[in-house]
Amino acid sequence: MNVLGIETSCDETAVAIVSVEPQGRLKILGQQVASQVKFHRNWGGVVPEVAVRQHLLALEPLLDRLWQETGLEMIKIGGVGITRGPGLSPALMTGWCFGRALALAAGCPWVGVNHLCGHLYSPFLREGTLPDEDHVALIVSGGHTLFLRMDSARRIERLGGTVDDAVGEAFDKVAKMLGLPYPGGPEIEKMARQGNPAAVDFPRSMIHSGDLRLSFSGLKTSVRVYLNRLGQPPYDPEIVSQVAASFQAAVIEVLISKWEIAIEQTGVRCVTLSGGVACNQALRAAAQEMARRRKLRLLMADPALSTDNAAMIATVAASLLLQGQRGDWAEDFDPNLSLESVC
Ligand code: KG4
Ligand code: ZN
Known about the structure:
This protein has helices spanning 37-40, 48-70, 89-106, 115-121, 167-177, 184-192, 217-230, 237-266, 281-294, 303-306, 311-322; strands spanning 2-7, 12-20, 26-35, 79-85, 110-114, 135-140, 145-150, 156-162, 213-214, 270-274, 297-300. The chain is an alpha/beta fold. Helix 4 crosses helix 11 (311-322). It is globular, with a radius of gyration of 20 Å. The mean pLDDT is 96. The site of 5'-O-[(R)-(carboxyoxy)(hydroxy)phosphoryl]adenosine has 19 residues, from helix 5 and helix 6.
């Protein structure tokens, strides 16, 4: 079965087709993403009004490019999966209407997909399988920082997460303070390569709390206090590099330390990393080092599948459709959609 995925929860418009066999083997046949970064950059963050306009402009031409890329057409699609939430309300609405209208016109089934389930599935795409192993997942994105356990029956348990800012949000806000453009994560990573991670001793908030709660707002404030002492931006590139490297090191140390608690608590032998911040090479290297030291199987989403994409949405949809799930026309999209116990 070929499943078309549609993702419009934030600032990437994405469509993709995944083919899936009843045994669960899957393959990405094609994917197209239109990033809106350049439209939001002037504002230093995502502007919902701008996001909606760009989704509406991008969806149709993107789908045309997907047909060209794959040589497929709507008649060859067995089902449509659409991100239902969580995300920006008006942005979600664009894909929700577009995807359901396509399914209605083609007479094929559709399902709403939880965006976080997409991130949970994305590390398995490289293997070409649906998640089939008991594991602890770390999802680090602009909106979420979550430790989840998913067992081989794809039952989910929330183990812990941030009590305030998401990691990606902290990267974006610290980048703004440093005078770096949006989105800040890749910019901080770039500047950090020239800096000394031990240059500034930023706090490792809640690292000794002994549980799986994380906090990044204190770290953000510490960066602000440190920079205020130096005056207003623009800062010397050397200072930017030192602060970026020290901030990044503090974030990674806390993430790895909490991840190790989750591994000890659950006893699992497999861990996964996904979400936009999973593009960060220093975090990936730290995860690899932890997995080697603890002899764990580590699956990390490819960078192109770490940030928001539709292949992960099509994959979850394929799994739901194979289980016989069908979207209900009375069901609405939900900006605060929470994770169900199974996904
Ligand atoms: O998963 P994603 O594309 O969207 C959400 O669902 O939120 O994640 C976007 C976030 C942004 O905050 C961005 O700054 C961050 O991921 N990000 C990074 C890197 N690339 C993207 N953070 C740190 N290092 C990176 N290389
Ligand atoms: Zn996301």
